[in-house]
């Protein structure tokens, strides 16, 4: 079991014409796909402070993905970015609060607190949690364009370079890619890109 506290987000992208977003958070893994927070209207720095407990089937191999969306009353909700956490590195029975940079976003971070209730690293030194939090904070958000550079670097060095080395499980919406987690494009996003190209040709 894992206790998840979704605290807040900062400097999210504005998805609506009013210069704001109506953000909420989803949680995904191999066995989880749920809306984890309420929607906060017209806010780029939302504070949710919501806690839930979820079952984790394979913490040694699984990663937990946090997706931020902007709720739209008409059409699909807008994607504002994601981050993922390697559950095998969490300390047992201790709350860890981190600030995570969002990938596939021009800017934005999310603050979360995780506590492994029946799994996790034991007999850790005093420096483990501060070092872990600093490491998480320093992980950069990834864009689609970055993956070309990541692939080239991994082939040159002949090893994965990302923070999720050795993971083998993934959500249907994501895949592991040279040590990073890469989001698959949804059918709606593909259709939207085709529509934009069609408009350019017509124009």
Automatic annotation (TrEMBL):
Highest taxon above the source species: Eukaryota
Pfam families: C2 (PF00168)
PROSITE patterns: C2 (PS50004)
InterPro entries: C2_dom, C2_domain_sf
GO biological process: positive regulation of gene expression
Annotated C2 domain residues: 1-100
Protein name per Swiss-Prot or TrEMBL: C2 domain-containing protein
């Amino acid at each position: 079991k894992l206790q998840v506290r979704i605290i807040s987000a900062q400097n999210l992208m504005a998805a609506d014409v009013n210069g704001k977003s109506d953000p909420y958070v989803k949680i995904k893994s191999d066995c989880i796909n749920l809306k984890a927070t309420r929607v906060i209207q017209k806010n780029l720095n939302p504070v949710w402070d919501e806690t839930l407990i979820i079952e984790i089937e394979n913490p040694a191999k699984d990663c937990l993905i946090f997706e931020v969306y902007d709720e739209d009353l008409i059409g699909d909700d807008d994607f504002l970015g994601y981050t993922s956490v390697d559950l095998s590195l969490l300390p047992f029975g201790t709350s860890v609060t981190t600030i995570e940079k969002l990938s596939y976003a021009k800017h934005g971070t999310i603050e979360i607190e995780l506590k492994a209730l029946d799994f996790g690293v034991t007999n850790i030194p005093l420096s483990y949690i501060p070092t872990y939090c600093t490491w998480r904070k320093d992980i950069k958000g990834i864009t689609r364009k970055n993956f070309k550079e990541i692939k080239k670097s991994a082939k040159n060095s002949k090893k994965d370079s990302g923070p999720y080395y050795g993971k083998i499980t993934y959500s249907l919406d994501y895949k592991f890619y040279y040590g990073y987690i890469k989001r698959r494009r949804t059918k709606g996003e593909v259709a939207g890109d085709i529509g934009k190209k069609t408009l350019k040709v017509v124009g």
